[in-house]
Specification:
This protein has 261 residues and is an alpha/beta fold. Helix content is 41%, strand content 12%. A 7-stranded parallel β-sheet has the order 3-2-1-4-5-6-7, sandwiched between helices. Strand 1, helix 1 and strand 2 form a beta-alpha-beta unit. Helix 1 runs parallel beside helix 2 and helix 3 runs parallel beside helix 4. The N and C termini lie far apart (44 Å).
Length: 261
Amino acid sequence: MSGGRVVPRVVMVTGAARGIGAATVRALVARGDRVVAVDGCGGPPLAARGDLDAVVAAGGDQVLGHVADVRDRSALDAAVDLAVARWGRLDAAVAAAAVIAGGRPLWETPEADLDLLWDVDVKGVWNTAAAAVPAMLGGPDPAGCRFVGIASAAGSHGLHHLAAYNAAKHAVVGLVKGLAADLVGTGVTACAVSPGSTRTPMLDATAALYDLPGVDGFAESQLVRRILDPAEVAAAVAFCCSAEGAVVNGSVVHADGGFAP
């Protein structure tokens, strides 16, 4: 608040062109926040530049688009600089960029799959935090700043033929918990959000790894007995980005519909 006026929060979201990342941008915009929407826009099977442009256009003057691969720390530094130059601060960052690979038992999984998952899903979260946290610490209100890493139900469970993805998402959970410990006394907090099976292009890719005709069969692994909508997960992420989100510091928010493989 400033003189009784609500000051919009400024948030950076990676993986913002599709899926949970795009839904998070929409959720933040709906509550009046300003967003730097970041995506690598690598093209099929990843998001394309047109996907990011659509997210930006829908957000109007509340959203700035920035093309950056999360494996490139300097590109993420530039995204943070963009937020600060435009709106004077960075209040939260959401590391949602991720890929999936697998479909074979661990001993048959190519090393390249593990390398890709580690570089994007783990180091990408690391790079996002390393770029964003200093801006939060140096900003006008560190006590209100939040870092959110998107993990997965695979960060708590072992999933069939996805050992490398399991390893990466478990690492995201550990990374965020370690970051929260590093931030003690600063006011900045960190947490992870672990979605279950959510209707996104990544879930389509997962079904393809299992040679399934579609994603609906994954609903049986969730107590709600349906596939989640990205907006449902985004609502949890948006809360974690809020000033009130400090309450989940160092925690994993299981936005997974009661995932039970």
